[in-house]
Design brief:
mainly beta, 7-stranded mixed sheet, 4-stranded antiparallel sheet, 11 strands, 0% helix
């Protein structure tokens, strides 16, 4: 079972940047589809970006061109570089994982937008606040 721990959240002025990290406990990290989700107060948790074990990526239109997902398999770590932040990006950000080995790719990283139901493992979240 994968354990995920997010870090890097904080408060930033609109137009600024933050870099989130998600450390995974399992050495088989490279075989997981990894995603970032966010949830603002009163809203549903929404998927914003995912990266598969083959490094293919899917971005939601709301973050495309501003956010960049990456992974370092040697460090078992997932990253989210967030640039040109807007107040509407304010939310709790979660990383999530779905087993996606080459012989059985997960649907988690095939959807145009990551879906919560496709991911089995979740971190506790890190808060991002963007003020104008």
């Amino acid at each position: 079972q994968a354990q995920l721990v997010e870090s890097g959240g904080g408060s930033v002025q609109a137009g600024g940047s933050l870099r989130l990290s998600c450390a995974a406990s399992r050495s088989s990290f490279s075989t997981y589809c990894m995603g970032w989700f966010r949830q603002a107060p009163g809203n549903e948790r929404e998927g914003i970006v995912a990266i598969d074990s083959d490094y293919s990526t899917r971005y939601d239109d709301s973050v495309k061109g501003r956010f960049t997902i990456s992974r370092d398999n040697a460090k078992n770590t997932l990253y989210l570089q967030m640039d040109s932040l807007k107040p509407e990006d304010t939310a709790m950000y979660y990383c999530a994982a779905a087993f996606s080995p080459p012989w059985r790719r997960s649907n988690a990283c095939r959807a145009s937008t990551p879906a919560r139901a496709d991911f089995a493992y979740w971190g506790q979240g890190t808060q991002v606040t963007v003020f104008s």
